[in-house]
Amino acid sequence: xxxxxxxxxxxxxxxxxxxxxxxxxxxxxxxxxxxxxxxxxxxxxxxxxxxxxxxxxxxxxxxxxxxxxxxxxxxxxxxxxxxxxxxxxxxxxxxxxxxxxxxxxxxxxxxxxxxxxxxxxxxxxxxxxxxxxxxxxxxxxxxxxxxxxxxxxxxxxxxxxxxxxxxxxxxxxxxxxxxxxxxxxxxxxxxxxxxxxxxxxxxxxxxxxxxxxxxxxxxxxxxxxxxxxxxxxxxxxxxxxxxxxxxxxxxxxxxxxxxxxxxxxxxxxxxxxxxxxxxxxxxxxxxxxxxxxxxxxxxxxxxxxxxxxxxxxxxxxxxxxxxxxxxxxxxxxxxxxxxxxxxxxxxxxxxxxxxxxxxxxxxxxxxxxxxxxxxxxxxxxxxxxxxxxxxxxxxxxxxxxxxxxxxxxxxxx
Length: 413
Fold this sequence. Notes:
The protein is α/β, with parallel strands linked by helices. The chain contains 9 helices and 18 strands. It is 30% helix and 24% strand.
């Protein structure tokens, strides 16, 4: 058994997502498993280097998780100048991301980033082109593709279950406390446009890649954005004016003619099984997918409901659906960790330590179950894919301002 260490600079790990999902539940989880199994008796051992502005917070994290106390830095330039650092990961506040990713690409590092990759399409495209020219591996977090519920939905799509897809309806969100008498569950910058906040910038990149990967490229968007709660309280209990949208209502057309309607809101109280749900209706069947589960109803088993407002409903509609079975260990999958594994395999392939270096047989589709021991294959979630998400959010904002439907041009490098 041979083990290769890979140093990963992680910027933004003191934030909620950077710490919980990327550091703890992804890279540290891999270390707890003994490293990433590359097959053939080879293992990749991730060694995080914690980067940020607050040295005391970084050192506290390193101590908490048993990391080398020397692998902490407030000097990003110095970390990127270190030849032993191979990968740069960014989970900073959105407005800081582009400049740091530019530096990492210029330093020849492989880059992996939270979305959105930039606050503007021009910046996101510039970054994608720079990474392509530099010849580095690059990826953007698209965690929803790796959710157990959406993996099951993808299985139905690939199997032709739906026939011709007619529509997709999505509901996402929950009530984020204003922060006055109960503390908010999300940071205050999320509600300040000047800091890169706004639900359209946060969530429409997700909806772009979900629709793109499952149903086809988004070809048009019509959106309405709202700031339902204009007054909030920050982490210090100080009131501030919310300048960013906290709800976005979108209608999208997709290649092939399907229509998608997706509501996103931080000002909605949940009355559904999961915090995000997608219903897909097709000529041959329908399905409803959430974070973990997916239920389906085939054409042949569709009941015949009759509208009669004079009598109480005698049917239990939810009981008329079947569960997609957990055939591939979907329920045990953490979406962030699964995508980290695929990205690190790609980096390992670069120097021949991965399975691609000795004739790996491809794979790595998010819906394919465990790709352990296989080459990652072509990357569908690179910085160009990240730019598509920024583009959709930008066009949705324009659509809301102008009150019209807008075509979505196809992006090329």
